Amino acid sequence: QDDACAQRIIAAKQILGKRVAILAHHYQRADVYRHADLTGDSLKLSFLAAQTDADYLVFCGVHFMAEVADILSSPDQIAILPDMAAGCSMADMASLSNVERAWREISEILNPDETITPVTYINSAADLKAFCGEHNGIVCTSSNAGKVLQWSFKQREKVLFFPDQHLGRWSGHQLDIPLEEMPVWNFDEPMGGLTPEQINKAKILLWKGHCSVHQMFQPQHIIRFRNQYPDGFVISHPECNYEVCKASDYVGSTEYIINTIAAAESGTRWLVGTELNLVSRITEEFKSQGKIVQFMSPMVCMCSTMARIDPQHLAWALENLVNGNIVNQIKVPIEEAKLARLALDRMLKIS
Ligand code: CIZ
Ligand code: SF4
């Protein structure tokens, strides 16, 4: 059955030719990833999407990535997400209404538009990127969060960082901001559950959001590895919690993780704290170079929402294109896209 599906995908691709580009994120499952024309992290994929002449960008990733591809590509290109249920649980932890409420509540004690730069991780809905565009804020990725924070502090004294508290905390820590100046804004409570003193003192207000995949990695996984392999290296994604990042030798985005291990010497051993599909793929890839790459957790940590993009959905979306039907198009409303583009362009300019 798997084979039959793969054959359908290959056949549809052959008919569509250069009219279609299949993009796959690093976290994508192997049976989908193998059909990709372009691969990378969300930002790299969006750039690649904007550069191709393909009419249809079939995005094998999650919803916010297809939105960014739609925003950055030309107006006549069409972004398609093979399964609309492929969301990002972290992105869902920040909604426009909750962020707007935070902005209103903060304005009871200080003028947020004069004192706060809103920064949204690329893992967020387009309307939040638009909010940042409108309020002189900016987007960041896991590759450029530090640079984006530095830019933000040049604009205003404070940052509201959403949705990922861990990326915000780690990036702030890298800039020597003390943890007590980075309180978490709990949107379930009035005033984020913070006192006016805490808000006044804060350099970064972190959002109560996290990645359900990366939260599974724990410091004891690293301790166990180091006891067993004292010469081994530990590399983690900044969506991991602070203790895990602190205990790692290297912390960075998926592109950074891949490039760092690629540049390492043969014979080295690596413990990697990020999504399982990516780690399994590079374990195989680097084996031939004599590098041992192992997954950080004893549990299976996969991005289950991204895994919804399976060969069946991909085949279905492609065959519809063959028949002249566009299914599951991701189209960000024009005004929202314009504002989101502002916040994205600010990031692209400094990174
Ligand atoms: O931006 C991306 O693609 C994500 C989700 C992670 C990363 O570090 O590349
Ligand atoms: Fe979202 Fe986590 Fe999946 Fe990344 S791994 S897309 S942050 S749920």
TrEMBL record:
Residue numbers binding [4Fe-4S] cluster: C88, C211, C303
GO cellular component: cytosol
Cofactor binding note of this UniProt entry: Binds 1 [4Fe-4S] cluster per subunit.
Uppermost EC category: transferase
Reactions performed catalytically: iminosuccinate + dihydroxyacetone phosphate = quinolinate + phosphate + 2 H2O + H(+)
Keyword DNA-binding (UniProt): no
A single GO BP: 'de novo' NAD+ biosynthetic process from L-aspartate
A GO molecular-function descriptor: quinolinate synthetase A activity
Keywords assigned by UniProt, alphabetized: 4Fe-4S, Cytoplasm, Iron, Iron-sulfur, Metal-binding, Pyridine nucleotide biosynthesis, Transferase
Stretches that traverse the bilayer: none
Amino acids binding iminosuccinate: H25, S42, Y121, I122, N123, S142, H237, P238, E239, T254
Subcellular location(s) of the protein: Cytoplasm
Pathway: Cofactor biosynthesis; NAD(+) biosynthesis; quinolinate from iminoaspartate: step 1/1
Function: Catalyzes the condensation of iminoaspartate with dihydroxyacetone phosphate to form quinolinate.
Protein name listed in UniProt: Quinolinate synthase
Organism: Nitrosomonas supralitoralis
Gene label: nadA
